[in-house]
Amino acid sequence: MSIVIEQESCNGCGRCLAVCPGALLCANAKGRAEIRYPADCWSCAACVKSCARGAIALYSAPACGGRGGLLRARREGEILHWVISLPDGTQRTISVDRRSANRY
Amino acid sequence: MDIRHIDADILILGGGTAGCWAALCAARASAGKGLRIVIAEKARIERSGCLAAGVNAINAYIGEGRCPQDYVDYARKDAAGIVRGDLLLSMAEGLNESVRALEALGLVILKDETGGYAQRGWRNVKINGENIKPLLAAAVRAQDSVTVLERVNVCSYLVEDDTILGAVAFGVTEKVCYALRARAVICATGGAAGLYRPNSPGFARHSMWYPPFNTGAGHAMGILAGAEMTSLEMRFVALRCKGSVAPAGTLAQGAGARQMNSLGQVYEHVYGLTTAQRVYGTRQEELEGRGPCVLRVDALGPGEREDLYKAYLNMAPLQTLRWVEEEAAAGEDMNASSLGVAVEGTEPYVNGGHTAGGYWVDSRRQTSIRGLFAAGDVAGGSPQKYVSGAMAEAAIAATAALGYAREVVLPAQEAPGASFAAIFNEARDFLERPGALFTVEQLEEAMQQNMDEYAGGIASGYRYNDAQLDRAEERVRELTHLSGGLRAPDMRDLLRIYELRERLVLCRSLIAHLKARRESRWPGFGEHTQCPGSAASGLRYVNSRLEKGEIRIIFRDLVSEGECYEHSD
Lengths: 104, 569
Prior knowledge:
The structure holds 2 protein chains of 2 kinds. Chain A has 2 helices and 7 strands; from the N terminus they run βαββαββββ. Chain A is mostly beta strands. A 3-stranded antiparallel beta sheet of chain A has the order 5-6-7, with no helix packed on it. A two-stranded antiparallel ribbon of chain A has the order 1-4. A two-stranded antiparallel ribbon of chain A has the order 2-3. In chain A, a hairpin with a 5-residue loop joins strand 6 (79-85) and strand 7. The longest helix of chain A is centred in the N-terminal third of the chain and has 5 residues, at 15-19. Chain B contains 16 helices and 21 strands. In chain B, strands 1, 2, 7, 8, 9, 10 and 17 form a 7-stranded mixed beta sheet that branches. In chain B, strands 3, 4, 5 and 6 form a 4-stranded antiparallel beta sheet that branches. In chain B, a hairpin with a 2-residue loop joins strand 8 and strand 9. In chain B, helix 1 (17-29) crosses helix 12 and helix 10 (304-313) runs antiparallel to helix 11. Chain B is globular. The model of chain B has no long low-confidence stretch (mean pLDDT 95).
């Protein structure tokens, strides 16, 4: 379980670097975000949620049952849209409203 | 390396839930008095501690018709008697106030038709806790009297004559050493993860229940400063969704899932319903060839699956990703009305929020070091804290620390003492060493393997005996020695050296505690194979102190509610 950062989408704003609880992200020579310790990621998704450009995606490691899906997040006001992209090219969006509590 | 001197009236170590709440309580209680409250946090308080990803229920709330004593009784039963009644009761009395305070900060809580909290059982309320840390952080940042030092790793207390003077810290991203002086210190560094090898080592090693960044820093600093610790041997093993390590309770309690073996038998009533018994039962079913054990929900209505997916996105998003991946793989074969998740026990943790291991504190949450208080998962004796209990405890610690700080005068600015110099020089050596044979990663792997095999980890089915514990202790000593020769190319790597060394300090004390408890009181959390079952003589606390380099075990009588415990020896 870790993250991938799409270099072409990253604009080097630094929000993900600031928010990572493990200080695992650094800016590379081009000023873009890079994960320096990929195996140390806890999959908390703080960076995924902090990225305004959807450049960061969470995935499951093969040892944890991962099948290649990527999880991104996009905030729109009080709504957090979670976008899951599967290897076959399909996408699924699950939108969570911050104002409503979990039913479980 | 630059040295920065910072003075505080109240210094709070760790800006997780307990740390943030302690800061808020201290700031509100001392408003207008010009006090300086400093939080030292190694991450950023918006997403730090065990609630970084969010949380989807408040598990400690006293519902209609129940009282704080009911909560004490429940926690005592779950811990098979090894709890501090005084601590549990004062915590339980603050639970509902903490939940109301969170709601006032903006936390969304599910309501019923009468406007009251919709409950999940008598102890839980349902929330949207994805943003619980950002809400707490915003409230902290709005306080003028609170300074938040971030990306700062506190690695040692400054203590003289069993009295706290402050702490030493290093920058995580900046080459700075901090000399922090304080009238009173509240330790809120959380529990400890990463002591044992996890279910998925290697690349996936940080797929763990508790944050891998909670390394037992507060425990280690306390142990090395001679603080008394309690009940470390009551480790916590969580029952979690396999692979994602996501919570199982949401499925079991929230969605009414049944826990069954591969024969379709619901097995939990065979073993009992305490937290430890649930873990034990699952392990036994697997060992006896009836695995995998699963949580199964049948008769999911339209939309209910989606709601479950949302609930997990708010706290453990990888579980939702996994379900969606599984759905795609199953295609048309999928039965939309049922859902099954394999469950397994995690590696053991030291966690005073769920079990009782941590600092030995008095009724006001002062540790055995004067002026040093503890709250949240680092504080012992008071299990089943969860979010609201950690807050209740932080409020008590903040009040006590303010009272203590009033009586203390900071000495005029003076040159850092000998203990500061020793810590500074050690860090400089790590940073300036030209090369090293071993890496932090290698030594961490060796430590986790050692604990796994010889100190009751997953590999041994959480079992251990004296001979194994002796080996474990010897290897921890060797690894501690080897860690002194590590090299840190930069400050982030220096942080990782300290994290490893903190874990090693805690491992050593943990092993001594496992050896000292001559019984197996919590079979799901660990079994001493030479001492099966509970013993009548086990109804006491196993405590310890590091004295002249050796761990001294201290047995103490149980403290019950109604008593006021003060340190006397």
